[in-house]
Amino acid sequence: YDNNINYEEQRAYVMRLLDALEVTDRDKRLKVARAILYLAQGAFDECDTEVDVLHWSRHNVFLLYDMGIFTALLELLSMEMDNSQACSSAVRKPAISLADSTELRVLLSIMYLMVETIRVQTEDDRPEWISAREAFKNELGSPLYNGEPFALLLFTMVTKFCSMNAPHFPMKKVLLLLWKTILFTLGAASPPASAMELIEQQQQQKRGRRSRRPLVKQDSLDTYNERDPFKNDDARDEEEDPEDTDSGIEGEVDPLDRDVIIQPPPPPPPLRPPTERVNFPKGLPWAPKVRLTKDIEHFLETSRNKFIGFTLGKCVFHLETITLMNISYGEEDVEETAAEMLYLGMLPNLSQYVIALLKLLLAAAPTSKAKTDSINILADVLPEEMPITVLQSMKLGIDVNRHKEIIVKAISALLLLLLKHFKLNHIYQFEIVSQHLVFANCIPLILKFFNQNIMSYISAKNSICVLDFPHCVVHEMPELTAESLEAGDNNQFCWRNLFSCINLLRILNKLTKWKHSRTMMLVVFKSAPILKRALKVKQAMMQLYVLKLLKIQTKYLGRQWRKSNMKTMSAIYQKVRHRLNDDWAYGNDIDARPWDFQAEECALRESIEKFNSRRYDKNKNGDFTPVDNCLQSVLGQRVELPEDFHYSYEMWLEREVFSQPIQWEGLLQNP
């Protein structure tokens, strides 16, 4: 294969590889799969620069998809999954290494390259590539693979691995492919606009003109704030709690120290010329959030009780209306979106999938300690022969840490995507996934993850730049030394770990938002000092989600905590959007009520089960099947009639309608 041969010759070569994939000899099949992987990686021996490698990789991936390679790889992957001999051999082995998953890793690598390359749009995409992207997206999200979406096959691999039935499965590659598949089929979830973007938009509207300059992401919540609540504090104002003292945690940094504020590379241009002063509008840079019906009803009810001493009580009109509508109009029409089909496929084993993902997250967390009964997530990183030199040991140590970081990144992104898209599809789909996460101890697991020196985790350097693809295939490999490995890369921060931390904070926010009993879990697990330490990472989005988690539990932490943590209280007020009648900073009688975790979760589970039964249970009791009594709906239904109906129709009319006397006077008489 040569990148310079014409397109038809390239297609003919790929067709020969496709035919060769069907041979029975395992070694020959692996050799062909490696050749396909080489093409997907851009046939790098023919390239001189990294740009060339990426260009030909993209060209070849679309060619491979057009020739049906992905479907052939899927069949091989299914065959490897069902290979009972390989599974039983791996179970009996005392130590599993890279050699036990060679075939699986090659197949998953090709599939990952195809999914990720086709998913990403570029400006110079050809028209046929655009149509191929849409076709591939629909194909991955549809139940075309044994009646299930492709993601379900990967979820099955995860559960088989965690149940110890297939300990040789390369989990890092499986999780990465699963994350990118769901990202491709469901779409990306954009983060909210930062405070600086909202301020810029308000100022542009006031000026009455649009700026052609793109908005720049805020580096830190404190960077541009002239009245920084964390700035110029005296030692007497230090607000560390007694349980917050940790000799391993670094002291709080000055938010205006540019060396410690996390900035995305390359550094963004200044928002304004240095001579121009940043003028902030008075008040908060956003309007308060309002849950229209609930917040307004709560406000009116409180006002009536306060000024008139009268309450209307709970109104169940809306609930009765919804129930009557469901009974009257029959089953609801459910649009078969990608999220809907994924949920339907996941529903029977949803609990197993959630538990498996959290097991992997726990095993990959930097705070977890090795246990003999825990799952081994290093099967696809450990070599057959263990290192014998210091240099080899250092390289393996970096590989192991990087391996764990990637697993945490993939799982955190995957869980966040599932929560966001199921919430958009139907609120109860979101609630059942959330409840499974809560029951599987996701809340204490995330808090345990953050109960570490978070600055060290964010600034970890577990990568070897010269070994990164495609750099390593177009440049001469320099000699690795212990000093070069210890120095690491030039990046001041590990964006992979920062991404994971933000995802986990967002998941924690979604699990606890508007849930009184789950918010109290944050208090019981003493999350406040853990979250406060996370504020030392001077990155806007991460600080925002930490402050949100502190905000929802502030009223339960007591007056003394609020009094001694005024810096945090000020930061919450300045940075987090508030809601109508938001009394987050004050404990009142209603919110100080005793919390019954079991009762609240059981009530939610009952509603979820009713939803699943109504929407997905096909074996309903016929006596309770909803009856459609809407005239327009009934007349609009298509009724299948027998073939000989038109022959006897006139006779039926004559016998049943015309020849029957109708007593119209009876309609005027009282019954």
UniProtKB/TrEMBL annotation:
SMART domains: DUF3402, N1221. Residues 285-649 form the Far11/STRP C-terminal domain. One of its GO terms (biological process) is cytoskeleton organization. Residues 197-278 are annotated as: Disordered. Residues 263-273 have a biased composition (Pro residues). Residues 224-234 have a biased composition (Basic and acidic residues). InterPro entries: Far11/STRP, Far11/STRP_C, Far11/STRP_N. GO terms for cellular component: cytosol. Residues 206-215 have a biased composition (Basic residues). Coiled coil: none annotated. Residues 1-222 form the Far11/STRP N-terminal domain. Residues 235-254 have a biased composition (Acidic residues). Belongs to the STRIP family. This is Striatin interacting protein 2. It comes from Scophthalmus maximus (Turbot). The gene is strip2.
